[in-house]
Write a structure and sequence with these properties.
Aminopeptidase; 2 domains; 6-stranded mixed β-sheet; acyltransferase; GNAT family N-acetyltransferase
């Protein structure tokens, strides 16, 4: 859908736009860096593969200004219960500490893994209802060093 908004100006609504996403990310990152005086961004990932190169699981996130955010953590169904989630999480936390991070944040739906994170020292800081099936989106936090207040 496209709607003209004045001479030469166009507002467009559509599906995923990778070019727009990249530009928005770049612009917000620059704004955030200016506002906070911090620009030490870094992607962080952990990957576990089996002997045949198949993906057992992994984690994706980022670090910035002493904060580590976990965006994705997944372990394949056939490998769950073998401790891979905890190993991946600990490896990521150790790397975040090495990078100077002192806290971690993440979100997990109630049907996913909030209890897993709580077993690993995370505390719930918020809950947004309205996820399909009567579920909620749970935000969690963990101090990687005892001096950081939750």
């Amino acid at each position: 859908m496209t709607a003209a908004q004045g001479e030469g100006t166009v507002l467009t609504v559509g599906g995923r736009d990778d070019e727009l996403n990249q530009r928005l990310g770049d612009e917000l990152e620059a704004f955030n860096d200016t506002a906070t005086g911090t620009g030490d961004h870094g992607a962080l990932s952990v990957r576990v593969t089996d002997g045949k190169g198949g993906l057992i699981g992994g984690l994706a996130g980022w670090t910035w200004g002493g904060l580590f955010e976990i965006e994705l953590l997944w372990v394949r169904a056939s490998s769950r219960g073998e401790g891979w989630g905890g190993k991946v999480l600990r490896a990521a936390e150790e790397e975040a500490l090495r990078r100077g991070c002192d806290r971690v944040v993440l979100a997990s739906y109630t049907f996913q893994a909030p209890e897993f994170y709580k077993r690993h020292g995370y505390i719930e800081t918020g809950r947004t209802p309205g996820i399909p099936g009567g579920h909620a989106d749970v935000t969690l936090y963990k101090a990687l060093r005892p001096t950081v207040a939750a």
